[in-house]
Amino acid sequence: MTDTPDPAPPDPAPVVIFGHGAPLDAPVLTGLSLRDVTRRFHDGDAESRIAPLLEPFLDPFVRAFLLGLEARAFDAAAAIVVWRQGAGALHAYRYACELRRLGLLPDGPELHLWNRAGPAGAAAAAFDAAEDARLALALAGVPRGTVPDRAPAVAALDAAQSTGAISGTVAFERRLRARLTGGMVETGPGPAATGPRLALAGAPLGGSGLHTWLETQGRLVLDLQGPDAPTGALGVLLDGRRVERLVWQVDPHDDLHGWHKPQVRAICAERGVLFSDLGFVPTWPDVGDLPEVLP
């Protein structure tokens, strides 16, 4: 008679993250199984109770998140953390809390708002420490384990994209998939890109339709709207990647990113980088939403 091995322990319930730019490597999140659902698409069905109540100008990612709550898409989570610094995140948190209070959203994992002060200084550091301590207390009962460091894989994928060794579409999709599933960013070979060296900036996108279209115009070596986007001064990034043209877009209800366009255009002009403004582009674009060629 042989001993039966003990069954493997079940995977811990994930912590769902909502909010553009949420720092998944923050110490307060160390060891947690994380799922970043910020750019995940959800649409209400004909029976949705909240879809008729959501204003048409509401941030599309906020709308998708709320409809995901209604569909119980996040019910397996141990908790839902809303990253306050993300565009539209406070609206998502306030709407979710109020719609739950009214009984229009089902009960589900507890919602936590997590914030950072941003600027350096003693007061900001104290605020950040208090926010982290509050979140750590809220997540005290959630199991933690050993999670590989994401940074090397993210950097390797970015380096491959910056040379055109991998297409902007594949790189964007890999980053999205890694954040959504909690897995590592895939760094294996992929289709290469050729043509003029392009950068993409503006409002966050949820789908890769624009990226696929851009591949007919050149190679996307700098994607500033995506998750895990390169950081640093824009001019330094443009120079370092030898960008020839920057492509700008915002979603039709944008009230944030468009304010940066004049400065971005000026930085491009200083360097002789062409600036192509696509205007309003849907958050999940397809080919019918895009022009035939870059303006």
Walk me through this protein's architecture.
With 295 residues, the chain is an alpha/beta fold. Helix 1 runs parallel beside helix 2. The strands form 2 sheets. It has a 4-stranded parallel sheet, with helices on both faces. The chain has 8 helices and 8 strands, in the order ββαβαβαααβαβαβαβ. The protein folds into 2 domains: 124 residues, Rossmann fold; 133 residues, Rossmann fold (3-Layer(aba) Sandwich), CATH 3.40.50.
What is the secondary structure topology, with strand pairs?
Elements: E1 15-18, E2 34-36, H1 60-70, E3 79-83, H2 89-101, E4 111-114, H3 122-138, H4 151-163, H5 168-181, E5 197-202, H6 209-214, E6 219-223, H7 234-240, E7 245-250, H8 261-271, E8 274-280
Parallel strand pairs: 1-2, 1-3, 3-4, 5-6, 5-7, 7-8
Question: Nutshell version of this structure?
Answer:
With 295 residues, the protein is of the alpha/beta class.
CATH C-level label of the largest domain: Alpha Beta
Order of helices and strands: EEHEHEHHHEHEHEHE
Total number of strands: 8
Radius of gyration of CA atoms, rounded to a whole number: 21 Å
The low-confidence runs, each spanning 5 or more residues with pLDDT under 50, are: 1-9
Terminal residue distance: 74 Å
The residue fraction in helices comes out at 25-40%
Beta-strand proportion? 5-15%
Shape category: globular
